[in-house]
Structure to design on (376 residues):
């Protein structure tokens, strides 16, 4: 016979949390679902928030892994209980953070964010698991509404901006003919500000589409080496302060979206320039390994402190320290880049050291590689 409260307190002691009864009271009052499993994965404790989330009360000691009626992944595929996040965390003996859908017996679906944590004894054996599960259904609905709003606003702003850009270009041509240099310089500045605005609106639109899983991409075969050289050449034209240096040119064919890949590279390069104001070089390296191609953009600028480096791919995340206040930006470029690379089956990551510089990487699966080993 399972005694819910004492077993739970015993489980907590394994984790070194002590035996104070107030822990139990605290967990019972939490608005977050919390439950525990024993070493055989039987449910041994759950708090009232878990019952609310599941819409049912599981039988202690007789049900396994999770008290929900049914579980699905975010793509709507049924997930058996012995493959749920708690099961993976316990079987693989590691902490997890995972989103999923929980179905209540009345059919209602709730979106959850689960934090299953195996509990281990001193010798490292898994003695059970504690899972904290947050119901994020309402938060996700609000995010979707916000994304839809952003998509509509960005879309509506684009049409008038396109015609303003057209007029600015006509004006520029006319002023070039009449030879009025100071007016021409103003028209050029106007056009470059319109381009900036267009870029910002496109970024908001992409971000809104990413949030609702609608970021479109068209895969075709192309040579990444050629694309990198083209993009580097174009971005080089936008800066007088930095030299963009390709360490190695690799000829490698990918099946991916060419435009989106160059968007990621442009983001890496423009960030490298922007966040290294006192440096004069940005290095671009490309190499192949195990069926994939890796591209790295290295700068010698501000760098990012350890505590923030893992967060730069989050939506709207901007590093906060006294130096970064001087740089304009919205914190969407890397978020969109990460989504693009993930959608194309690749990976994206960063290595950085404060005050030394950063290396931003992406990798994509490749079709075949001819490592020419050219250096520039
Ligand atoms: P934005 O540059 O518009 O703020 P990004 O999504 O491109 O947005 O970057 C997110 C944040 O990551 C930036 O605000 C900056 O703090 C940090 N970051 C990005 N690239 C670099 C870099 N090369 N060096 C240092 N910090 C960087």
């Amino acid at each position: 016979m399972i005694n819910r409260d004492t077993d739970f307190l015993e489980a907590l002691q394994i984790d070194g949390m002590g035996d104070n009864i107030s822990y139990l009271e605290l967990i019972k009052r939490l608005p977050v679902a919390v439950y525990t499993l024993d070493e055989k994965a039987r449910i041994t404790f759950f708090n009232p928030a878990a019952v609310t989330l599941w819409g049912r009360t599981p039988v202690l000691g007789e049900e396994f892994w999770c008290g929900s009626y049914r579980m699905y992944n975010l793509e709507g595929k049924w997930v058996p209980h012995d493959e749920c996040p708690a099961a993976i965390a316990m079987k693989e003996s590691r902490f997890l953070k995972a989103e999923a859908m929980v179905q209540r017996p009345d059919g209602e679906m709730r979106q959850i964010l689960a934090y299953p944590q195996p509990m281990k004894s001193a010798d490292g054996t898994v003695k059970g698991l504690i899972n904290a599960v947050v119901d994020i259904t309402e938060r996700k609905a609000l995010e979707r509404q916000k994304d839809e709003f952003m998509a509509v606003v960005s879309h509506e702003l684009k049409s008038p901006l396109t015609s303003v850009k057209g007029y600015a270009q006509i004006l520029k041509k006319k002023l070039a003919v009449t030879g009025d240099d100071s007016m021409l310089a103003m028209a050029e500045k106007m056009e470059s500000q319109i381009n900036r605005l267009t870029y910002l609106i496109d970024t908001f639109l992409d971000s809104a589409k990413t949030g609702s899983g609608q970021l479109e991409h068209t895969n075709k075969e192309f040579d990444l080496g050629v694309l990198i050289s083209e993009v580097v050449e174009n971005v080089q034209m936008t800066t007088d302060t930095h030299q963009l240096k390709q360490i190695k040119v690799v000829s490698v064919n990918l099946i991916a979206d060419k435009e989106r890949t160059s968007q990621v590279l442009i983001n890496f390069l423009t960030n490298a320039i922007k966040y290294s104001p006192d440096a004069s070089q940005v290095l671009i390296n490309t190499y192949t390994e195990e069926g994939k191609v890796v591209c790295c953009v290295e700068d010698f600028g501000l760098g990012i402190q350890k505590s923030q480096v893992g967060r730069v791919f989050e939506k709207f995340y901007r590093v906060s320290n006294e130096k970064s206040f001087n740089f304009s930006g919205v914190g969407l470029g890397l978020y969109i880049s990460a989504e693009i690379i993930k959608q194309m089956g690749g990976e994206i990551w960063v290595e950085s050291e404060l005050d030394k510089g950063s290396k931003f990487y992406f990798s994509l699966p490749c079709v075949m590689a001819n490592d020419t080993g050219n250096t520039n």
Q: What stands out?
A: The longest helix spans residues 137-178. Residues 141-211 form one domain. The chain has three domains: 5-135, 141-211, 220-370. The chain has ten helices and 13 strands.
